[in-house]
Predict the 3D structure of the following.
Amino acid sequence: MVKDEMHKRKVQDIPDLEKRDERSESQKPPEQDEFYASLVTAKAMIMCQIQESERNLLSSLKVLEQNNVKTRLLVNSVHEEKISSVDVVKGLRRRAALTVNCPICTYVFPTKMADSICRTLRDGALEGELAPTLTIKDSLASPFGFHIFSHVLLQLSSHVVAQKSQSQGIVIVALSRSPSSYTALLKMNGVDVASSNKWIHILDCYTDPLGWKDKARKSVNVTDPSHQISLATSSYKTVKDVDKLFSLITELGRGLIGENKARFCVAIDSLSELLRHASLQSVASLLSNLRSHDQISSIFGLLHSDLHEERAAAVLEYMSSMVGSIDPYHHTANSQRGYFENFLSEQNFTKGKFNVRFKRRNGRVRATCDEFKVEHGGISFASVSSVDGTAIAGLLPKVQFNLQLSEKERKDRSNVVLPFEHQGNGKPIQIYDGRRSLEESNIEGNPISSGKKEDSAKGEIIYFRDSDDEMPDSDEDPDDDLDI
Amino acid sequence: MDWNLLDEALGLHHTHAKPWPLCGRFVLVEDCVDTSAAFVLHHILKRSFSSGPSSAVLFLAFSHPFSHYDRVLRKLGCNLAAQRDNGRFLFLDMLMLQCPDEGKPNQDGLASVFEQIERVIAALHEDKKFISIIIDDISFLEVAANGSSSDVLNLLHYCHTLTSEYGCAFIALGHKDIYLNGDNAAVILEMEYYADILVRAEPLSTGLAKDVHGQLMVSDKETQHQHGISAIKTHNFHFKVKENGIECFYPGTKI
């Protein structure tokens, strides 16, 4: 009795499976069919002729994405150098299952993770999410941390000035640089310092972190010689008290943006210095308090990783959504020593590698590597892959098979009837992949539609997406790092 | 004036911009047991006096008494006693400094040292524009602070603030090898992060030689100057310490 009941229930639970069996019994499609179905739903390759504007191209890409049920396996040949926006090219490449670079015209991406970091910081936090946090890590072998820090700071402040960012103000917690050096930095890069008081505020933990000077001034009454500071500055004299530091930061931020819904950004120029004065726990709790504060849009800080135990760096990395670590350009860890032994009499260190690790909300981690070069007046980034790309392209002509099609081959190919095309009554077959296509969504309340509509007695193809990354179901926009 | 390679590496020959180019910089001089870098301090001391009448030096001596420096500098052609008398050389004898040891962090000890420094600087700043603070050397400072390296770093940080506040040059000598393999290996790294210019003296990597006393590496992290940020410049050369000065030369160029 019970067994029978169980069996019944089982059947009820998996009716789809049963139906699928029925169908295969009745129609017996070739085995390749399923293979092609998966290929199609994996949105293999998309034909795009770049004739009109690029914006059209990208929106058509998005439509294709939603509609990919009906997309056929197509070959895409794109002249990338005709596309001015790198991000459009990236969007195309990302959708392609296979990209073959033409060996003659290799496209070199001019950008770079550093931009997408700045964009993430600019876009700030979503309601009910932690603020995006960037930790920049450097070491003595490649001490360009402050270069990157100031690059990010300048990018962000230009966004703030242009009111393109979520944050409307920046609070700089200055621990290793004097406020006047920030004034000089901003001035040098053409930021109007006079009007900056509205959106930038420096919390000066550099000049007197332990209150020594304060003590001396009280007893001797020395006049303060620092009179040229034109950025708004408040000083803080008890860096060991991290709780107070937190309340001071939020207070200053509120002073910049007011009590409304607006948000501000926090820049900490030396987490190492903070860690020297306070315990790891208190620094970690400061960071987590800042991240969960609802008026903070983003946080970034600089850490000298070789000054601390690995665990301290790990703790801070766990609390950051982005980690940018700066490594020496040359592979030997001890490059400086290597140079010394080789004895080049004069050497300029200008280059390094910038490894970025992005953590998405859903737990996906993306790691990339850029190269940077410090030049007169700034820092520039280039992707490492572009260099590798040319190397690979150089190897391509040695490949044994032919990538081109002759006219006859092309004609023959277009005459081939693909396995899933010669079944049925000439109508295109639609394969359900667990989501609604545009057409289906017009017919409300009939989730498993197309097959049923045609012939409900025969059953339908049930196709469940299993591991097509997370693309269509994910709440995140796969192109959110592109600036189109 | 004839500049040698060390002057060029330190940027001392760029006198057209400011008479004392080390202003606002922190120069960390590192040496080891085999190769002493005290001569770098002597050289900088001499150069700062010859840079112009508005320069002055505050010297914190933890390792030698005044008479020692007086003798050495006299050989180099610089009369310290005279400079002291006309107020351009302020010598703080810290040989006997011992912070009160009560089993707790002795910040007060070094805080009072800093108070003393700041008071002198503030008074000097009235008529001397280019002040250098020289510490010889950090390891004895650490001894005076009862081995508390965090106190030492705090003092260095405070001295560093004077470089931006008063535009002082700050030069300190430290021994790298006493921090190797220890628990506080991070201390020397921390100092190197502070430093704008790092001068490292090492024995000759190819072994002992009669005519070459060692090799110097000067790396200049010029993070900000009038055009923005710039690269790290590193100079490497050999040196020979003589009675009346030093001789610097590129490897293989000495006959």
